[in-house]
Amino acid sequence: MDIEKVDPALRTTAQRLPTPDLSRPLVRTAMRLATRIMPVPRTRSVSVATLRADGLRLRIHRPDTRRGDAGLLWVHGGGLLFGDARQDDPLCAGTALALGIPVVSVNYRLAPEHPFPAAHDDVHTAWQWMRAHAEELGIAAERIVIGGESAGGGLAAGLVQRLRDEGGAQPLAQWLFAPMLDDRTAADASLDEVGHWIWDNRANRFGWSAYLPGLSGTEDVPPYAAPARRADLSGLPPTYIAVGDIELFTAENAEYARRLGQHGVPAELDLVPGAPHGFENWAREAEPTKELLRRARGWLAEVLR
Asked: I want to staple 153 with a disulfide (CB 3.0 to 4.6 A). Which of 20, 148, 259, 268 is the partner?
């Protein structure tokens, strides 16, 4: 893809980012290690603690000043292949501070070593843990939002669908950033030649194939694994989806938002001009990121009123 299509405020950083071949085990190992030991900035007036519970590693962001009784369960990205809750510390802590709510970020098992439903079950366990520990967190168990970025956004959307089917307590909303929703995108070889910045369709195909070995792109994908596959989207909570207009997931995200609205679900699609995948993470100081987070947090603040 022509670099001229990238917003000038994001262009230099996008060009500097590596494009590792995640199909190579040593590359995946290096990426996983890097995200686990990477230095993360502190956010003033937000405390951060790491906790092991129910077989999970959780990262809990608590603002010094609380406003309201809601909480956010957050799921990190990484193509289902790598990533760690630490990588989203600025976004999670910044959201905790801006909204005055605790944010629980969950680590989950990664493909290909742990295919579906491992990661899906892990985020479900995190939801159950957060509800069970609502009093300790200082939140109301029925006022939890589920959010995530990229692969984490897809896991969040799949979890929301599962909770809809299980009945009982439901999330207050879903808050998604460029969610990885549809394995059928990866199956479309015509997208390989586009050369999307940061995350292209070849990487996408490997991620889905690792998560759904032998099933990705077929008619046998299990429920919740690829949220865009679900036919009936009625009864899902209000949804916010942010995505760049030049990235691989633009079409599948826009279609999911359209279908949510068609099924009576309030859905807002925030289409960011000239933004490659994950820019809100790797270009945190850029003006397009700051503007996006102001809008996204504003939407969430309205939901929590």
From this structure: 148
Within the chain, which residues score under 50 in pLDDT? none
| Count of the separate structural domains present in the chain | 1
Say which amino acid occupies 78. G
Q: Do residues 283 and 13 lie in contact, with contact meaning Cβ atoms separated by under 8 Å?
A: yes
Q: Which CATH number fits the domain that encloses residue 222?
A: 3.40.50.1820
CB atoms within 10 A of CB 184: 16
pLDDT tens-place string over residues 178-221:
999 999 999 999 999 999 999 999 999 999 999 999 999 999 99
HEC string for 181-229: CCHHHHCCHHHHHHCCCCCCHHHHHHHHHHHCCCCCCCCCCCCCCCHHH
Give the integer Cα–Cα distance in Å for 210 and 110: 9
- Note down the domain range covering 19: 3-304
